[in-house]
Amino acid sequence: MTAKTILSRPVYGTLSPQPGKHHLFIADAEGAAAILDMANSAPAGFFADAHIMFVPGATGTKYVEPLKKLQPAQFYEGPSIASALPRLRQTLATAHMGLRVYLSGTEGLIGQAMQAALEAGIDHTSIQTEQRGSLARRVQCVHCKGITENVTTQPATCSHCGLLLLVRDHYSRRIAAFQGVCINAEDPTENPPKEEIFR
Amino acid sequence: MSAGTSKIDVTVTDIVPVNELVKRFHFRRTDGAILPTFSGGAHVVVEMRDDDRTRLNPYSLMSSPLDTTDYTISVRRDDVGRGGSLFMHNRVKPGQRMVISNPVNLFSLDLRARKHLMIAGGIGITPFMAQTSQLAGEGGNFELHYTCRSEALGTYADVLQARYGRRIHLYHDDRDEKLPLEKLLSSQPLGTHLYICGPAGMIDWVRRTASEAGWPSETVHYEHFAAPQPGKPFDVTLAVSGKQIRVGEQQSLLEAIEAAGVDPPYLCRGGVCGQCETNVVSYDGKFLHNDHWLSEEEHRSGCKIMPCVSRFEGKSLVLER
Ligand code: FES
């Protein structure tokens, strides 16, 4: 669980089965374990109407078989979040009311899948989320607007313009990223040491 | 005193019988100015001065929000109610001056929706008249399903069909036409919002079916003004103002408090807005809760009452007013 610091900092819960006609799960890495845990309390036959989209990342094959054992109506395994997103948008574009969305794994996955769901007209409060695994952040540099994925340090270097950024808790749901602000604008020779804090 | 609403002096410019049970009333500002802007789903509270008593009843505005030269409401005659609708039907005449509140909207459209699915029952059609006008003006995507007892009592069904054609779907009880609710709810595109106005039983049915079909509560909007029910007279002590009052058989608790010169806040006078929520200091007896505002737990606690629609039976009731 992440602590609530400022209002825009997302807070995540624990996945739980919702009433609905179809259930769409999007998870990366350890996020699979959140689905497997939820499956223990799901009513019989729940996954017969489910579609699981999974990006294993560093977990390799560890979770693939256990997820398939849930016998979802559809199972998709993708090499990266970026490659799963077009498929997610396509699924949402043709979906009907009664579809429930469950997101689990890293904040980057949850944020980007959430962004696609919001664009499809789903209210963010009706989406189930659970954070698992790495705490790495997706950060947008407020200066060049470039997005840096998998940021684990504070401060962090912008992968686009090279500025040294203070990673804030200020979060944009619209762009699914935390805000990064230049930490040494007054004196660029000042170089605070990087600490690995988002693990 | 009504929280956040001020009064408007209006003149009744026209009264149109719509069918056997429904009359439409047109109001303009007596001073000739433009009426306040409102959005579809808003209501006004109409003051009815009937000899020695004043009734204040909420009615949905049904005219187009795009035109504020006049406001129109439609009133269905209720022969067994507390007399508000009978007063409007029998005593109000064209040219008469009346007082209404500023509009308040407790049933507004969520304009983030991709599509608006509306379900009306009977006279519950009125807020949708304004909402459809508003959406049509903006090119909004909507569909209205309207159940009524018979063609003759399908208030404004003809007007709506002429305006919006196939976006309007009618179901007549006397022809045994049923609203295919489950099918309807499962075929809506993602991002649809649902709006319901009609009898309490219909609202419950639609809300329950939608929730079982996986519609998140944020996407389900409904409005049901509870009419204050008549009941046995009862006595109340108002602790703050130090008054003893008696609530008459045909009076609501809120009306009795107002008659004693105390002005609690209100907006809807129909048990839905929460404005009139009043703390109970002590009681000996039982509450007759009629509101849609307090939770069941709060109803059981005996700590709160909504005086616009709820009553009491028993030995004593002390309120923090
Ligand atoms: S005035 Fe709205 S609940 Fe009583």
UniProtKB/TrEMBL annotation, chain A:
Stored Pfam families: DmmA-like_C, DmmA-like_N
Coiled coil stretches, renumbered: none
One GO molecular-function entry: 2 iron, 2 sulfur cluster binding
Keyword Oxidoreductase recorded: yes
Domain called Dimethylamine monooxygenase subunit DmmA-like C-terminal: residue spans: 138-181
InterPro entries membership: DmmA-like_C (IPR048037), DmmA-like_N (IPR054582)
Keywords attached to this entry: 2Fe-2S, Flavoprotein, Iron, Iron-sulfur, Metal-binding, Oxidoreductase
Domain of life, source organism: Bacteria
Domain Dimethylamine monooxygenase subunit DmmA-like N-terminal as annotated: residue spans: 5-127
Protein name: Uncharacterized protein
Organism of derivation: Mesorhizobium zhangyense
UniProtKB/TrEMBL annotation, chain B:
UniProt keyword annotations, A-Z: 2Fe-2S, Flavoprotein, FMN, Iron, Iron-sulfur, Metal-binding, Oxidoreductase
Any coiled-coil regions, as ranges: none
GO molecular function, one term: metal ion binding
One Pfam family hit: Fer2
InterPro entries, A to Z: 2Fe-2S_ferredoxin-like_sf (IPR036010), 2Fe-2S_ferredoxin-type (IPR001041), 2Fe2S_fd_BS (IPR006058), Beta-grasp_dom_sf (IPR012675), DmmA-like_N (IPR054582), FAD-bd_FR_type (IPR017927), FNR_nucleotide-bd (IPR039261), MRET (IPR050415)
Ranges where the 2Fe-2S ferredoxin-type domain occurs: 234-321
Co-factor requirement: FMN
Entry-linked SUPFAM superfamilies: 2Fe-2S ferredoxin-like, Ferredoxin reductase-like, C-terminal NADP-linked domain, Riboflavin synthase domain-like
Keyword Chaperone: no
Stretches assigned to the FAD-binding FR-type domain: 5-110
Protein name: Oxidoreductase
